[in-house]
Amino acid sequence: MLINGSANCSADGRIKVSDDISQLPPQVQERLLRLQQLQQTLQSILGQKQQVDIEVTEIDQALNELQKLADDAVIYKATGSLLFRSEKGKVTTELTERKELLNTRASILGKQEERLRNQLKDVQTKLQQDLNPVSPPSS
What is the average per-residue pLDDT within 88-103? Predict the structure, then answer.
């Protein structure tokens, strides 16, 4: 968290915090806080995206296994800590629908990630300009 520290931008655009942030202009302080919020939100989105990808992979594996079974095979579906007998077609339909929903969610998360990365880039650029102002040419 950025509480007591001034900042400098490193070559990779990350902000280094040191000393006293209160010495910075309010606009720069706000941008630093915005940058931190965007970074945290991006991390959350990336975590959600990873969970969705894992679940899609698991569903793909389950669907592949279901394809190998006869249509009248006995299937058990886990619900919480219980197993229930179910039909292959019903389970296949449920898994396919869940996969479609997850793919939609992954698409939305991807768009959010892209938007956040663009916002991060903009804030980093503005901070670099604020913290490393271009000195006017000496005459």
Answer: 97
Q: Is the pTM of this model over 0.90?
A: no
Whether residue 29 contacts residue 5, with contact meaning beta carbons closer than 8 Å, is answered with: no
Asked whether residue 136 is assigned to any structural domain, the reply reads no
Query: What's the Cα-to-Cα distance from 68 to each of 9, 43, 61, 77, 94, rounded to whole Å?
Result: 56, 38, 11, 17, 17
Q: How far apart are CA 65 and CA 76, in angstroms?
A: 13
**52 contacts: CB under 8 Å, gap ≥ 6:** 102, 105, 106, 109
Please state the separation of Cα 50 from the chain's center in Å.
8
Domain count, the chain: 1
d(CA 131, CA 9) in angstroms, rounded, equals: 7
